């Protein structure tokens, strides 16, 4: 039977949603049946063999949809293989080394039994609207996501799933 993986994301401006799509594409290339969904729209995780949950970072916290998804589904997630990712840094630090999740996310990860976590670079449109966002964008606007880094992480998950016989 084909392994079914849900890639759920919390994203405000779409760039984390796109990372979720890249992850799912890479998993499909490894023969895995991967669905991508906005974490705020997923009713439950029934039928999935594993879950990858990601969120954009805003003010040091995971996007609300990802946090709520984790809370809502904690009872099921604890029994499944789960991986977490964040997207945020508006510079090249995420490509240069491992960035640990913020403490609030570490707590969520232990509640859902997440195996590990990756931080990927973020994207912010230099022309973004909103007072705070445009102030951030003025200094750090741009696309810092590394598609190959994301795909390599997904391939590693595919290998781990195979290793644990999922
Ligand atoms: C107001 C604001 C606060 C942010 N706070 C953080 C942060 O605390 N840590 C971080 O790594 N990135 C932070 N970012 C960058 C975003 O996480 C980045 O733009 C991300 O790619 C957004 O994802 P989205 O397009 O899926 O919403 C912030 C961006 C804005 C506009």
UniProtKB/TrEMBL annotation:
PANTHER family: PROTOPORPHYRINOGEN IX DEHYDROGENASE [MENAQUINONE] (PTHR38030), PROTOPORPHYRINOGEN IX DEHYDROGENASE [QUINONE] (PTHR38030:SF2). The lineage of its organism: Bacteria, Bacillati, Actinomycetota, Actinomycetes, Streptosporangiales. GO terms for biological process: heme biosynthetic process. Its EC number is 1.3.5.3. One of its GO terms (molecular function) is menaquinone-dependent protoporphyrinogen oxidase activity. Residues 5-158 form the Flavodoxin-like domain. The keyword Lipoprotein does not apply. Pfam families: Flavodoxin_5. The keyword Oxidoreductase applies. It is an enzyme of class 1 (oxidoreductase). This is Menaquinone-dependent protoporphyrinogen oxidase. Keywords: Oxidoreductase. It comes from the Bacteria.
């Amino acid at each position: 039977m084909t392994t079914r993986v849900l890639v759920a994301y919390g994203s405000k401006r779409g760039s984390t949603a796109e990372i979720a799509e890249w992850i799912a594409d890479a998993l499909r290339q490894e023969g895995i049946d991967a669905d991508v969904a906005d974490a705020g729209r997923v009713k439950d995780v029934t039928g999935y063999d594993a879950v990858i949950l990601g969120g954009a970072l805003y003010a040091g916290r995971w996007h609300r949809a990802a946090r709520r998804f984790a809370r809502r589904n904690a009872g099921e997630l604890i029994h499944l293989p789960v991986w977490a990712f964040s997207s945020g840094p508006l510079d090249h630090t995420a490509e240069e080394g491992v960035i640990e999740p913020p403490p609030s996310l570490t707590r969520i990860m232990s509640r859902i039994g997440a195996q590990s976590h990756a931080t990927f670079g973020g994207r912010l449109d230099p022309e973004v609207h909103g007072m705070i966002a445009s102030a951030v964008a003025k200094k750090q606007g741009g696309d810092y996501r590394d598609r190959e880094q994301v795909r390599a992480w997904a391939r590693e998950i595919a290998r781990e799933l195979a290793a644990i016989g999922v």
